[in-house]
Write a structure and sequence with these properties.
Number of strands: 0
Distance between the termini: 63 Å
Helix content: over 70%
Radius of gyration: 32 Å
Amino acid sequence: MSYSLLDFLCLIGSVALFLYGMKVMSEGLQKAAGDRLRNILSAMTRNRFTGLLTGVLITALIQSSSASTVMVVSFVNAGLMSLGQSMAVIMGANVGTTFTAWIIALFGFKVNISAFVLPLIGLSIPLLFTKSSRNKSIGEFFIGFSFLFMGLDLISQYVPDLQSNPEMFAFLERYTTMGFGSVLIFTFVGIVLTMVIQSSAATFAITLIMCSKGWIDFDLSCALVLGSNIGTTITPLMASMGGNIAAKRASMGHLLFNVLGTAWTLAIFFPFCHLTQWLTAHIGQGDPAALSSFVNHIEATDPSTYDHLFDNSLPAGHPISTQIAAMQQSVSIGLSVFHTIFNLINLSIMIWLTGLYVKIVEHLVPAKPNQEEFQLKFIQGGMVSASELNISQAEKEIVVYSQRVQRMVGMAQTIVHTKVNSEEFTKQFSRLEKYEEISDRMEIEIADYLNRCSEGRLSNEGKHRIAAMFRIISEIESIADCCYGIGKLLIRKRDSGAKFTDDIYHNIDSMFILVEAAISNQILLLHDVEHAEEKDIITSYNCEREINNLRNQLRTQNVNSINDHIYEYQAGIFYMDIIGSLEKIGDYVVNVVDEIKSLSRKKTA
């Protein structure tokens, strides 16, 4: 096998065409579908069983578990799918990939979508010149889809052709007599081989050739197929490298699912293979273990026939070639049975442990110690290929931003009750100051991200969402400023020597309770802006009215208390400044709710 520099450059170009096609397809899809994709995904992954079915169907249709799991990783990275939802889809994808093995076993071919790409491009081009923006986006989607499969077809042409050069694996024959050690070796070979050629289906075909030549028996063929299940996880792992921690956890979940499944299968490997042989024979396909021994017998007793057999020089209809063809079909069916039973048993066990899976993956891929305070959670991995998905990532990040600012409200309440001349006060104020700096940085980074989103192709609805998000993050940052302002007020109070009474502390706490409720309701609305409930919006307005009423009531009481000499005038000034800051927070919350309400109306209009 010769592989030149030109072949390598053609391979690079094929990958580039594939990536460009994926970019164009994603942008066209997002422009045409907009927010509907999120609703579709939500419906498809409503529970673990619908998610499982989604993974099975998608993988069966596109005949690639790697492609479907890469999509899942992208959606998790975009915040459109939770880690738990992704686990169910990934488990389904592993079952869906068995359809490809059965197609190869029964018909000897895969669906060649690349044959239709040029006619599809021809039909799509007129759509680009229509006046309808939606039709243009649909045209872009189909052209991107065509480029994607053209790239895939070219990649398969220019990747080193291991399948047509099985002699590269002849050396493995010497490692076939080591018992369970041979099983482990061939499982590892299956992992490496699938990682290199990026196709478990190609590994399946190579395994069939090796078995047909008598180099390995059926048990070791099963070990190769078992290893290929782990090898397919390399593509999603690579896809997650530039993503956020949620994407890394999703790809790690895919790896964990296959590794644990392989581990229990290896523990009962030989009985499991015998079960596969029995089932294959029971459905009338013969004994898949008979091929290698039959070929080895021919090689030992009739070497010339063996040589003619594999250089295709035996006459047509020769009884030995006919018999071997039937045995090859038996091996192919047997490997498909092995692969299917492995995935079905693995799935039937693991689907009930999805919650445990998520915990294990979170432990294996922990957040960095400072990640919660110093890094963005959903948009740290950069832009995904579709602008509408970028907006969804930003919306998820704004929820995190609001939650972090809510923590500042709790810090402000804590510092109000902290002894002003104590070391604890200094520590608490430093923490509040640090969070305010983080708040400023988050506002800038989210705004910068939204600016980059706006440079992409967006629907009118997408542009409206970005404008509203700019205003929302500005209001959230103002809440953080108010919390930090309360800390500075307390320092001025300390320097002036003013003292608060128990009633003042009680009234401030009452105001904090109302503000906390308002922010909690704000976060609830931010979690699902498109489906904001009218009752939750009304709750926010009621909270703001209660805050205003309490502020007015406390302002009147403050004047009376100062006149009655219950506390000093200076203490009353700081007291009212704190109450005023908390009342401003209520105003900023309502401003956020107004933006959410406008987006909700836009959605239903």
